[in-house]
Model the fold of this input.
Amino acid sequence: MPSITGQYMARFRRLADDRNDTLLPATGAQRRFVLVRSLDPSGRPDLVPMVFAFPHGTVDPERLRTAAGLLVARHTALRARPAVVRGTPVLRVCEPEVRLTRPERAPGESPGDVLRRALAAWEAQGPPLRLFLVHDEERAEDVLAIALDHAVCDGRSLARIVKDLGAAYDGEAAGAEAEPAAYREAVLRQLDAEERAETPGAAAYWAERLRALRAGAPARGAARLPGGGAPSGAAQARLPGHDGGVSFPGLLDACRSAARELYGPDLTVPLGYPWGGRPAGTEPVVGCFLNTLVFPAATGRGLGPEATADAWWDDLDRADVPFDAVVAAVRAAGSGWTGGLDGLLTVDDDTRRPPLRLAGVEGREVDLDGRPGPGPFAVSVTRGAEIHLRMVWDRAAIDDEAAHRAFDALTRALSPAPRRSDHTAG
Done:
């Protein structure tokens, strides 16, 4: 029987025969985002905002618009709009379009309030990259948000976008050529790797590995969303760095501790995390190539980091199997799990993400809390000289008290003595 990726490519080739070359196939990671978007009643995509504050007067809006135009013209993914054609997820390449919006602040609104409101009003049909510029009178700053549809970028892309936008702003990328051939080659190589990974043995492995997952685990206790409150809460801590850093299995096991506080003992909840990269030999193009792997976080005690590490290494041997194929294999084995995730873990290295510099001025990166999250809870870890740990949660699914207990369990699992922590509720 043909693999899911093989079936997808057959459908795409039939579409491409009927239409012009403005259609591009979607990677497994992109198909997941397009599917999630199609199931959302609002139709809104999962958005990735990067927010930077500059001293007032630093940002020249027209110069920024011109730089963004050069950026979008160069990178195919940034002018490609996710779509579903005859039931087939694709990217439709459009003419470069730049939207730079300067939303007005209503009385009493902070810059964060303005940006949250602007992102909530995101029109589903439109360019995947948009810029928002807000003046903060109190701090004498201009706050710039670079917002992207997650279907066209991954963590590795964000560093490239920040670097290229700053270079274009300084006039250093005016002659850069577009990359359509390199992007198409990278996508086709990615799809080839995904198809080769979809073996009967890999399907059987994931079906057994994830068979205990439930369709959706209810959080402990009733959620209490205060009237008018932000839809998500957040907490963060800075932990002392360890010699050699915290291992990824150690982070997974710490997230298991948080899940125990949220969902109770003796459950197995799906925890997703991005993994992978561009296929070997391809250009480092902007796009969405990181597969979402699923870790079955058993909340019972007694497993420990060594058992987690052993299972995780086995998982990585099948890491190229795309998410939709994993879900299909698990469901074919009789599970009621439909692909929903109860938690997310993302890990970044602070040396891989350069700060945004405009005309020699470095922007201060700002966390934009209070936005609806992609799931009940998400943990992000930035590793460097110290560990920056953040957790956000959906306050309609998890109440703040339970979330604070989970975050405390998370920090205890990673370090007995966090250097500084900050709990917020929106």
Observations:
- The first strand starts at residue 23 and ends at 25.
- The mean pLDDT is 87.
- The two ends are 49 Å apart (CA to CA).
